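Regression test attached.
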Amino acid sequence: MAERDTTDPCPLPLRTAYTAQESLVVEDDAGNAEAARITTILEGMLVAKGLLAKGEADQEIEKIETPGLHLGARLVARAWVDPDFRNRLLADGKLAAAELGMKVGEAQLVVVENTPDVHNLIVCTLCSCYPRSILGQPPSWYISKTYRSRAVREPRTVLHEFGLDIPEAVRVRVHDSNADMRYLVLPMPPAETVGRHEIDLAGLVSRDMLIGTAVLQR
Amino acid sequence: MRGYHDIGGSLSGPIPRTELPWLDWEKRVEAIRNLLGDSTRRVISLDEMRRGFESFGPEKYRKLSFYRRRLEAMIDILEEKGVLTRAELAAAVENSVQEPGET
Amino acid sequence: MPLFHAGERIRVLDLGKAGHVRIPAYVRGHVGTVVQFCGVFLNPEDLAIGNAGGRVVGCYRVEFLQTDLWTDYSEYPDDTLVTEIYEHWMEPAHG
């Protein structure tokens, strides 16, 4: 069992090593089949008890499948070409997203800007909070226990593992999304945005850039 | 007083990079939770579901996959609220297996 | 009227609460700087046990130096961590 670090006012256990399998448990075929069976039966029971309408879950599935990278990329591209929109996005992400017809379902979307001085990284140590209403499902690594645990304590090492080395002159700012806010990183734009179409610029944005584990090659 | 889910800074080890597919049952679990938590029902809030998987014990938390944790937490909360029992659910699952013609 | 303001130094309390709390263990007892007031929310500690009729509580983003949070974080003294803290877990920190 890990020993306690007693020099800290809130003693934390020294670290426990996890394997990749422990960090992200993957169901085998039997596990998936069992879970699918239980879920189907559960849905049926909830319909029988009047808590769900028949077919309602299917409709909700369509809804949750809709958001994705394309929405986040649009927000970023607009911010890159329009400085006033960028300011509004940084001030109130939910309101700014609504201008583009995007409904943020979470309490608030906080957009944090990468600059030549600051690099941002997003994590949820307690579970897996992520701006799902805009970006859809988080990557598997984001919900893994080792990412959740290590991103707050050794962000530069984690970023190095993602192929990103942040220079010493740039400070790393980690955001632990533990409560009601959801976060999106506004990556630094390409060297030249003048005259470029927003759609092309949106095409440069990757999901990992919006979490902070990648940057645009400039 | 530290929950077993409260792992900021306490683990080491590799970050797995394989992208897992998002399966239909997993989407269905999320969809059902969203619906049960909406303003017309308020049967399971996000906070209650979280409390669910923070209470079913470190072993289950360690062994179950991400969406299985949510499914199990939902079932626990539904039982807690008297909506159904695990026994009832298990019986229904068993009946469904014995009747392979049903969808 | 939020109790704390941007730029203020606060300490995160350790309330020793059982059950569902959203304050990670690694920040408890530490001093940070308020970044912004996020608004008032129903307390997740109440919501988790099905009580949606409780008081709302203020929530703040608070920024900590990584070198304060972790005894083995020394090489990059300007690196920080920001997380959300509920008002009842905060007290003013002086000095």
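Expected vs. actual: identical. The beta strands of chain B are 11-12.
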